[in-house]
Design goal:
The protein is α/β, with parallel strands linked by helices. 54% of the residues lie in helices and 11% in strands. It has two domains: 5-85; 92-280, 3-Layer(aba) Sandwich (Rossmann fold). The chain starts with a helix and ends in a 14-residue tail after the last strand.
């Protein structure tokens, strides 16, 4: 247990101040004989406080040393994992062309993308849903409905149609104009090549706030589209998201990894794409930490 020394020093000052007042009051009211007894008792109290303070300082130092040891061990373990990871992933994803769709608002972790590349995969496109992706605005929905020639302009209906357009754009260049339009509205950001062959699609989920039915109306329709084209889909997120998408993704029986920022999560994703499907990670929605590794 780490002690807050500022608090305890302030407490000791208050105690000494109270003792001083006690001595003055004792001298004035009870006389010297009684005052000697009070002084002796107060000296004993001060000695006890000093002993307790010294003990707390030792315990605090021991706790800090223990934390430092744990941190050093953790750093060594992470270095070991990073060095060992390529041994298990090398060549596992040769000739795999992968598209990434990030619906999370947590930002992107390049390290797991690099792990896929080192395993032989080619990341052909990355589509990122931006913070401005909000269909509660009537003007935005009206603009999109006009562009996409929709009869229904409710938020769920527009969300589902935009999801379909994005999914189609990933594997077909025929509607690339619509993706550019979504970019102009500040809804998405695209990078890479669109319209080419895709062997797998990875969805990056998780949110800082409860998004309600957004996942059901946006992520899942896109996933369903790819699955209908016999393109494997995988759902990932980091371990620290406030609202997990894993239980939603698993409704479509897709493989999930809920700790993609960790070495174990990156290994799980590579193994899942290479033919070991499952729900991996450290959360309650995971079935196991890792796939069985031969």
């Amino acid at each position: 247990m780490i002690i807050d020394f500022k608090y305890h020093v302030a407490s000791l000052i208050a105690v000494f101040f109270a003792l001083g007042i006690g001595i003055l009051v004792g001298s004035a009211v009870l006389g010297n004989n009684v005052n000697d007894v009070i002084l002796q008792q107060q000296k004993q109290l001060v000695d006890n406080l000093k002993r307790d303070f010294d003990q707390m300082r030792k315990e605090n130092k021991a706790a800090q040393d223990e934390i430092a040891d744990y941190q050093a061990t953790l750093n060594i373990s992470k270095q070991f994992e990073k060095q060992v990871l390529p041994i298990f992933t090398e060549g596992k994803l040769n000739d795999k062309k992968i598209a990434v769709i990030e619906t999370s608002n947590y930002g992107f972790h390049e390290d797991w993308i690099n792990t896929l590349k080192s395993a032989g995969a080619e990341i052909i496109s990355i589509t990122t849903v931006l913070e401005g992706f909000n269909f509660k605005n009537d003007e935005v929905r009206k603009s999109l409905s006009t562009k996409l020639m929709l009869n229904e302009t409710t938020e769920p209906a527009v969300l589902r149609e935009v999801a379909k357009e994005i999914a189609e754009g990933v594997i077909s260049a025929q509607n690339i104009e619509n993706l550019h339009y979504f970019e102009q509205l500040g809804l998405i950001k695209t990078s890479g090549n669109y319209g080419g062959p895709v062997n797998a699609v990875i969805f990056v989920g998780g949110s800082r706030e409860d998004v309600g039915e957004h996942v059901s109306n946006f992520d899942l329709p896109m996933m369903s589209y790819f699955l209908s084209k016999n393109i494997p889909v995988f759902g990932v997120e980091t371990s620290d998201v406030d609202y997990s998408y894993m239980k939603h993704y698993q409704k479509l029986k897709v493989s999930t990894v809920d700790n993609i920022e960790m070495t174990s999560g990156q290994l799980s994703l590579v193994m899942a794409i290479s033919g070991k499907p499952g729900n991996y990670g450290i959360k309650t929605t995971a079935r196991q930490l890792l796939p069985v590794i031969p």
